[in-house]
Design goal:
Length: 362
């Protein structure tokens, strides 16, 4: 008798599923969706749900169409209806989807709440963890990203998105070598110019020119029309004592963007080390003096102004100009202190160090 009841129940379930598949509204909705007739798909999904309000799959399918229509609020509503209708194993995925829809709305706190909820149900959900960390990074809080990832950060090699978020959080909290190493691997997997550039920049900040060069040259391969990438490639080559290759990179940058501040600056520095370099460098220094300092100028990056030229006067003059134009920026003063120390002008070096310290002290 028990076996008969079980078989009957299975048969009834199969019949219900077959009826759902052959429902004219559901069929019309799926056909319209396949033809990208989104309004018709929405209308037929809603008609089907009028008589099948507990069909989780229909709510989810409708949400997909609504997302494509950029009707994010309606899509979120359908997903929220579906969450209690599915089994517990599917709920973290739906909560993650809701969080992604909230990101589309640019509601980062709401998205963070959904990713948190997904992780509460499935603490090993690597995608939800990565997305949660990304919301922290979006809010400029890399420390929170590392806290939210917790021990899951050690599993970065198992999920590309997790590795991206984890490495970026490491870089932004000053753990440059570890973060750049992971991010370079991710960039290689994704073949992503922006990630190669970020990894290369972090290696430069950590005074690691060889891995920086590899990452940045990969970025250049993928994005050959990016003057900023060319400039960073040149910086890495300077540090590797390859001034002619560096000059080539800076000239490529200037061919793309003649008013690129850093390319003019670094090309001038590169030319200083040559015989008669002062006169060759002067036009580029002169142009750099007329250009605005970028919002985030990596003056420390790559050992700027660490040339062995006998005459550093042009570099000193340019740094003074930069310091005058940007009175709240300590970096020109730090570099001036470096140059004065190199020239054994200790009193001036100490004065610049004091200025830099005053500007960095809260």
């Amino acid at each position: 008798m028990k076996l008969f009841v079980t078989v009957a129940a299975l048969a009834l379930t199969a019949l219900c599923a077959q009826a759902q598949r052959t429902d004219p509204y559901l069929q019309a909705a799926q056909q319209a969706e396949a033809l990208h007739d989104l309004p018709t798909a929405v209308r037929n999904y809603r008609a089907y749900l009028d008589s099948h309000p507990k069909s989780a799959d229909a709510h989810i399918d409708l949400s997909t169409v609504l997302l494509e229509q950029k009707d994010y609020d309606a899509a979120i509503q359908e997903l929220q209806i579906a969450v209690p209708l599915v089994g517990k194993k599917r709920r973290p995925t739906l909560l993650t989807d809701i969080g992604l829809a909230e990101i589309k709305k640019n509601d980062i706190p709401a998205a963070k709440a959904q990713f948190d909820a997904a992780l509460a149900l499935d603490p090993k959900n690597l995608l939800a963890a990565a997305l949660l960390a990304n919301t922290d990074l979006h809010q400029n809080d890399p420390e929170a990203a590392l806290r939210d990832l917790g021990p899951l950060g050690t599993l970065a090699d198992q999920n590309v998105e997790l590795a991206t978020a984890y490495s970026q959080a490491l870089i932004r909290t000053g753990q440059l070598h570890q973060g750049a190493t992971i991010l370079a691997r991710v960039a290689d997997t994704k073949d992503d110019a922006a990630l190669f550039t970020e990894a290369g920049s972090a290696f430069l900040q950590d005074s690691e020119p060889e891995p920086a060069r590899r990452a940045l040259e990969s970025a250049h391969r993928l994005s050959p029309e990016d003057a900023n990438v060319d400039t960073l490639v040149g910086i890495a080559r300077i540090l590797l004592s390859d001034p002619f290759a560096a000059e080539s990179a800076f000239r490529e940058a200037l061919a793309l963007q003649p008013d690129n501040f850093l390319a003019n600056l670094y090309l001038g520095i590169t030319l200083l080390s040559r015989r008669g370099g002062d006169s060759a460098a002067k036009p580029f220094f002169d142009l750099a003096q007329e250009l605005p300092l970028p919002a985030s100028t990596p003056l420390k990056q790559g050992g700027l102004f660490q040339t062995d030229s006998g005459s550093l006067d042009p570099a000193i003059a340019l740094l003074k100009q930069i310091a005058t134009k940007n009175p709240g920026n300590p970096e020109p003063h730090e570099q001036l202190a470096n140059l004065y120390s190199k020239l054994h002008r200790n009193a001036e070096a100490n004065a610049e160090e004091r200025l830099a310290k005053q500007l960095t002290t809260p």
